[in-house]
Amino acid sequence: MQTDIGYFEEGQLGKTYDVKLLKRMVPFIRPFTKTIFWSVMLVVCITLLDLALPYATKVAIDRYIVPKAETAAENSSAGPKTNTRWITADLDRADVRAVVGNHPDLFELKGSQALIKLADLERLDKREIAVIRQNDIRGLGYISALFLAVIVLDFIFNFFQKLIMQYTGQMIMHNLRMRLFTHIQSLSMAFFTRNPVGRLVTRVTNDVQNMDELFTSVITFIFKDLFLLFGIGVVLIVLNWKLALATFAVMPIVFVATAIFSVKARDIFRILRIKIAEINTRFAETIGGIKVIQLFRNETDNYRQFEKLNHENYLAGMRQIRVLGLFLPAVEVLGVLATAIVIYYGGGETLAGTLSLGSLVAFISYMKMFFRPIRDLAEKYNILQNAMASAERIFLILDSRSRLPLPAPDDREHQLAKIETIDLDNVFFHYVADEPVLQAIDLTINAGETLGVVGPTGSGKTTLVNLLARFYDPSSGQVRLNGRDLRGYDPQAFRSKMALVMQDPFLFSETVRKNIFRADGHMTPAEMDTILKMSNCEAVIDRLPDGPETVLSEGGASISSGERQLISIARAFARNPQLILFDEATSYIDTETEIKIQDAMEKLMSGRTSVIVAHRLSTVRHADRIIVLNRGRIVETGSHEELMDRRGFYYHLHQVQV
Ligand code: ADP
Ligand code: MG
User: Which atom of ligand 1 has the smallest separation from the CA of 464?
Assistant: First the structure.
């Protein structure tokens, strides 16, 4: 198994992150426009509620705790003009009248109301104050209730907003993953030779996850935090535009700091990502190749390489921390600076009576709210970076059109009743341009025939099998089935009529039964037993702890390669194929199992067309016809006896092996 995580392409990515990528996400987002709309509406409500809290505090202070100072009113004609804070009480209440009667010198009467200076309140006793200020106390009660209501609403709205946003993110992720999965599953072998397993796995898991965070976290940020920033700005200006402008004096510094941060952070985040991918790769390779490493005593060397990578990752991590460590406190300092401006400048205005105490307190609260989203920016930025890189990689896969060309639906030969003949007509093939693997192959395989294919390693035997199964199309020439180009068939139509037994068969981590009778749910238990018996699998299955229900661990590692091969032959049997391809089916096997496999193979081949690729000549000895491949060309054809008599290439191979 290849274990590369695909970091080498990371270097080129992340440079072009632009509107184009966002545009490409639109089709994935569009189905959720409604839910996103509701989420944004909720965000607007939440922001308004959040904005309301400091304002409610201001009202509580200004109206009920420390009333606004008023320039001496006309009813107190005497004395110089001073700023006085007045407390008002209603005279139509008996208890108020009693208190007023006790201190006639402190109160001024004005219509049905009695006024007392805030400073004079302390000359009343506690109980009297409570009577005089009962309106204010009630008002505070209302505001507290309002606070509570706002918090409860905030909670409810937040809950639904999160729910909707997470739902949307999950759905988008779900759809994206399905798209990727279907796409990858439909790609041709050529794609899989280019793209290592590890990289593809990362795409479907990590990268999709990153995109989800983009939707849930960054979109929320844009709507919530930016809206909040804007809202606070407006409220501050309405409260006191001069003070607002004074505090905004720190804004240019905030912008500069953010700009510097984003430039620096971007590079570092990218380096960090590459390092993490490299670490993953090294780790995956170590696990995949642990036998080789231990056998060749490569641990120290491998350890050093990992240590180096790990150290580089640490250095990148430290750089990130330095940048974050500068940025976060810098924003903090700027926030405190802005608060200091509010306290100094605003406090001065409060003293001068041009700014109410409540407004000052509200200003300070808003300042705190203002700098929190800016600080979060750092985190959001990281997520955005990751998501963009992931999006780019996901689209890279979705863009790859490396599929075998399919015939137009109405052109497809759906009805393929029987495989009569297979012809290869002047077939050339190369995986890599200018490196021909098969050259000028002319070959006809007739129904019921057994064809042996022999040749030295690398002569193109497996490639020939790949062409017969149409994992690849020939570079030139034609592979014909019943006289018709293989490309004219729906691959599923003819693949359902063939079986392939490979050198190193792949078994899924499912039960043995499922592995063998994969798509053939219609089989009766008796038929299944026959197949197991024919393929000499019974002994293997009896040995397993749960019989046919034993779950094989990944790759079938829990059974020997011979047993695995027997199971894969049973799997071929279960398909009841007309054409069967063996690619070095007995290469890895001990003699005793080989005899069993040979026996099973012979039963499987009887009455069927078969192609046996073999390294060992004894395997193909009884084939009707044997072709000998060398360097991609057919050098000899004939039965075993004919080829032996000819004393050519086959004869020499034979001499070497015996
Ligand atoms: P055989 O099965 O006879 O040992 P193969 O058909 O597997 O030989 O390979 C024939 C040649 O094609 C070899 O030189 C091999 O290196 C090359 N080859 C096989 N698979 C690929 C591939 N996916 N990409 C590039 N070259 C390949
Ligand atoms: Mg091979």
Answer: 6
In ligand 1, the atom with minimum distance to the C-alpha of 190 is 23
Share of the chain above pLDDT 70, in %: 92
Q: How far is the CA of 404 from the centre of ligand 2 (A)?
A: 22
CA 38/CA 42 separation, integer angstroms: 6
Judge if 319 and 442 occupy the same domain: no
The maximal CA–CA distance of the chain, rounded, in angstroms, is: 139
Closest ligand to residue 430's CA: 1
Whose alpha carbon is nearest atom 7 of ligand 1? 462
Q: What is the mean pLDDT of residues 395-413?
A: 74
**Other Cβ atoms within 10 Å of 499 Cβ, number:** 24
Please report the pLDDT score of residue 589 as a whole number.
74
CA 591 – CA 595 distance, rounded (Å)? 6
Segment 486-508, tens digit of pLDDT: 888 888 888 888 999 988 888 88
Residues with C-beta atoms within 5 A of ion ligand 2: 462
Give residue 430 CA to ligand 1 midpoint distance, Å. 9
Domain that residue 374 falls in? 8-63+139-398
Q: How far is the CA of 428 from the centre of ligand 1 (A)?
A: 14
Supply the residue whose CA is at minimum distance from atom 23 of ligand 1: 193
Tokens found for residue 146:
């309002």
Q: In this predicted model, which residue has the larger pLDDT, 276 or 185?
A: 185
Kindly list the protein residues whose Cβ atom lies closer than 6 A to any atom of ligand 1.
193, 431-432, 437, 455, 457-463
DSSP 176-214: HHHHHHHHHHHS-HHHHHHS-HHHHHHIIIIIHHHHHHI
Closest ligand 1 atom to the C-alpha of 584?
A: 2
Closest CA to 617 of 565, 564, 573, 654: 654
Taking the centre of ligand 1 as the mean of its atom positions, its distance from the CA of residue 124, in whole angstroms, is: 102
Dist. CA 21–CA 295, nearest whole Å: 47
Query: Per residue in 47-99, pLDDT tens?
Result: 999 999 999 999 999 888 888 766 554 444 444 455 678 888 888 888 888 88
Asked whether residue 608 falls in the same domain as residue 463, the answer is yes
Confidence of residue 153 (pLDDT cuts 50, 70, 90): very high
Q: Which residue has the least CA distance to atom 15 on ligand 1? A: 458
Q: Which residue has the tokens 């979060």?
A: 376
CA distance 70 to 76: 12
Helices (H), 30-133: 33-59, 94-102, 126-132
By residue count, the chain amounts to: 658
Select from 366, 398, 430 the last residue of a domain.
398
| Mean predicted confidence (pLDDT) in 465-493 | 90
Last residue of one domain, picked from the residues 348, 375, 398: 398
Task: Identify the CATH number of the domain in which residue 549 sits.
Answer: 3.40.50.300
Pocket test for ligand 1, best of 2, 429, 431 (most atoms within 8 A of CB): 431
CA of 237 to the centre of ligand 1 (A): 73
* 388/487 same-domain check: no
Q: Are 658 and 492 in contact (CB under 8 A)?
A: no
Nearest residue (by CA) to ligand 1, atom 12, is 437
